[in-house]
Amino acid sequence: MNIQSKLPTTADEFLRWNEGREGKREFVRGRVVEMMINVTRNHWRIATRLTHQLVLQLGLEAYDIGATDFGVRTRDGVRYPDVLVEPTAGDGKALATSAPLLVAEILSPASVAEDFGTKASDYLALASLRHYLVLAQDEPRLWLWSRADDGAWTEPDMIEGRGETVSLAGLGITLQLSELYAGIEG
Q1: For a Cys-Cys bond, which of 27, 93, 125, 144 suits 77, CB 3.0-4.6 Å?
Q2: Which letter does DSSP use for residue 147 in this model?
Q3: What average pLDDT does this structure show over 1-28?
Q4: Strands (E), 16-116
Q5: For 137-153, what is the mean pLDDT?
Q6: Cα–Cα distance between 104 and 134 in angstroms, integer?
Q7: Radius of gyration of the chain (CA)
Q8: How many CA atoms lie within 13 A of 138 on its CB side?
Q9: Which is an annotated GO molecular function term of this record (predicted)?
Q10: Domain membership flag for residue 26
Q11: Which of 1-15, 85-99, 104-118, 129-143 has the lowest mean pLDDT?
Q12: What total of structural domains would you count in the chain?
């Protein structure tokens, strides 16, 4: 006999239900959405290099910085960004944060519409968020949304070229595209 567990209907239920399950999924507007679990080498390289640059510049005393498997609570569910930064939090057993400062997604052919559409909308609604980054995986190009001092979001800036830098004023750091995209042709 095959016994199916009841699908979650809230973010809290989802986090408990999803814990320890194989595969990757998000909880979006009341639905469990299956996600891609295999990424390209370029995707993995960029996520690793972005995390490395963030750790080097921000340190780990005041910030928790990581990739992929820690959730972000949104107004409509739970997302799992490729990279996130949040102030160091107290609860080591938490399964998600609701206060990220930076969220980054790395594009794949299957995620373009989502990363620029509903994910962007979900992330930009977070009061704590200062920057949302979307990075191409095959060429040195990214899009940056930044929250202004008045709380309004800037239109996304597209920054491209290996010699360019990205100022994350809300965190007081600058990223080097030459380091993010080292060894990636394009």
Answers
A1: 27
A2: B
A3: 74
A4: 25-28, 31-34, 63-67, 71-74, 77-79, 83-87, 96-97, 102-106
A5: 96
A6: 6
A7: 17
A8: 5
A9: endonuclease activity
A10: no
A11: 1-15
A12: 1
**Residue-number span of the structural domain to which 68 is assigned:** 39-180
Least-confidence region, from 18-32, 76-90, 108-122, 136-150 = 18-32
Let me know if residue 136 belongs to a domain: yes
Question: 12 in a domain, yes or no?
Answer: no
46 Cβ contact list (under 8 Å, min separation 6): 106, 135, 137, 180, 181, 184
User: What's the CATH number where 99 sits?
Assistant: 3.90.1570.10
**Is residue 31 classed as helix, strand or coil in its secondary structure?**
strand
Three-class secondary structure of residue 78 per DSSP: strand
Indicate the DSSP class of residue 152: P
Q: Is residue 58 part of a domain?
A: yes
Whole-number pLDDT of residue 5: 64
DSSP strand pairing (77-79 vs 71-74): antiparallel
Question: Is residue 186 very low, low, confident or very high in pLDDT (cuts 50, 70, 90)?
Answer: low
Query: What DSSP line would sit under the chain, residue for residue?
Result: --PPPPPP-SHHHHHHHHTT-SS-EEEETTEEEE------HHHHHHHHHHHHHHHHHH-SSSEEEEESSSEEEETTEEE--SEEEEE--S-TT-SEES--SEEEEE--TTTHHHHHTHHHHHHHT-TT--EEEEE-SSSSEEEEEEB-TTSPBPPPEEEESTT-EEEETTTTEEEEHHHHTTT---
